[in-house]
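for the writeup, i need someone to sanity check this before i put it in the appendix. the sequnce is what the collaborator sent (i think, or maybe the updated version? ugh). structure was predicted straight from it, no edits. if anything looks off just tell me and ill rerun, i have time this weekend
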Amino acid sequence: MTQQNIIVKKYNHNYAVHIVKMWRDSKEHAIGQKETHSFENHVYFLNHILLESFEVDIALIDEKVVGMIAYNEREVSQLYIHRDYQGIGIGQLLLDIVKVHSSGRLRLKTFEVNEKAQRFYEKNGFKVIGRGNENEENLPDIQYEWVSE
């Protein structure tokens, strides 16, 4: 599968249920912890809270949601790839789009247990700038920053 098969488009409410299913499954697989919020609350969060501060792009293959990224010019809030489609360039494609639309500096957090994400971000020029665990999962996290050259 190549990036030609991947279509990236702006978020549309018609994809909400599919995005949240993929997001929850991907996150649970990455951190080994079930989502604490109900499915309905997660959809509400996507449609009403996340969209207040962030753009959301989705990646589709044959109209199937295979990835999503929520971002603004300074921050990546969420980046999730369907676990059956990881490692084929979807995350790279989404992150490259966000870098182009950034202020030249992006910050994000990932969980310490998500070593795959750490390798991905570090490969993409992100540097560790802090550590903590200020998240509802109560897991240690790593703060990263990318600065355009």
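The beta strands are 7-10, 55-61, 64-71, 76-81, 105-111, 127-132, 141-147. The mean pLDDT is 92.
thx in advance!!
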